[in-house]
Amino acid sequence: MKENGLPTAQTAMGEVGQHVKDAMNYLQDQDAQQLLEGVKGATGNYSKDFSSLLNGYKKSCDGAIKGGQQIAANVMSNTSIKQLVKQSAEATNDIAEAAAEAAKEHVKHVAILLTQVIDQMKQIDREAISQNVFEAIEEMKRTGIPMAQDLANEVGEILKGAFEYLQDTDLQALYNNIGKVAAANFASFLIMWEKMQEFIDEAIDQGRDLVKTALPVVATALPNSIENVEELVKQSAEVTNDIAEAAAEAAKEHVKHVAILLTQVIDQMKQIDREAISQNVFEAIEEMKRTGIPMAQDLANEVGEILKGAFEYLQDTDLQALYDNIGKVAAANFASFLIMWEKMQEFIDEAIDQGRDLVKTALPVVATALPNSIENVEELVKQSAEVTNDIAEAAAEAAKEHVKHVAILLTQVIDQMKQIDREAISQNVFEAIEEMKRTGIPMAQDLANEVGEILKGAFEYLQDTDLQALYDNIGKVAAASFASFLIMWEKIQEFIDEAIDQGRDLVKTALPVVATAIANVDLPTEEVTEQITNVAESIVSTVEDIYDAEVIQGVIGDSFDGIEETYIQSRDAIRAAMNGLIGIGIGGCGGRCAESCPLLRIEIFRDFAQTISLFFSNLYTEIESQMTKFAKVIFGGVSNLVAIDVAEALQSEAFVTIGLYILLVAASVSFILCAFVLYKSIYGHQSKNEIRDGHEARTWTEIEKKSRYTVKFTTYAITGCLTVYLPVAKFCIELITESQNSLLVNKLSSLSPENKTELLIGKFISVILLLFFVIPLPIVFYRLIQNNKPSGSPENPDIVYDVDGIAVPFDDKAYHRMIENDPDQQKCPYISLYKGFERRWAYYKVVQLLFKLLLAVSLIALTGASQAYVSFAIYTSLACVSFYTTPFVDEMNDVMDSVGRIAAIVTGAGGVIFISLPKWEMSESIIGLLVNFVNIMYYLVVMFVFVSGNKMIMKKVKNMCGKFTFSDTVLHIENGTVEQIVPRWDVERESKHRIWHVFWEGILLHECEEKVAIRLLELQDATRNSGIANIRAHWNGQNDPKIMEMRKYCCEHLEGVDVYWNNPISRDGKLDSKTCFGKMYIVPYPFHAIMVYDDANDESFIRDDNLTEFYTINRSSEIVHKRTTRQKLRCLSRWNGEINFPFSRIETETVRDGTKTETYTDNDGNEQTREVPNYSTVRFTCYYTNGRINVGANTERKMAAGFIVTMSYYDGHGSAVLPKTGQTHHFSNRTAQMGQSHIGLHDDMNETPTLRSIFDKTSSVLESQMPQLLSEHNDYRQQMITRHQESNKILGDGFWYFVFNNPKISREALTGYLLNQEINEAVRSIPTRHVAGLNFLYCRLAFVNLNPAIRLWYVFWDDFYYQNKDMHIVNLHENDFSPLKSNSICYQVMQRDKLEIWLEKRNMMGSPVRFVTSLFCKPILFNESNLGVLYGELFKLQSSHSANDTRV
Question: Would the pTM count as exceeding 0.90?
Answer without folding.
Answer: no
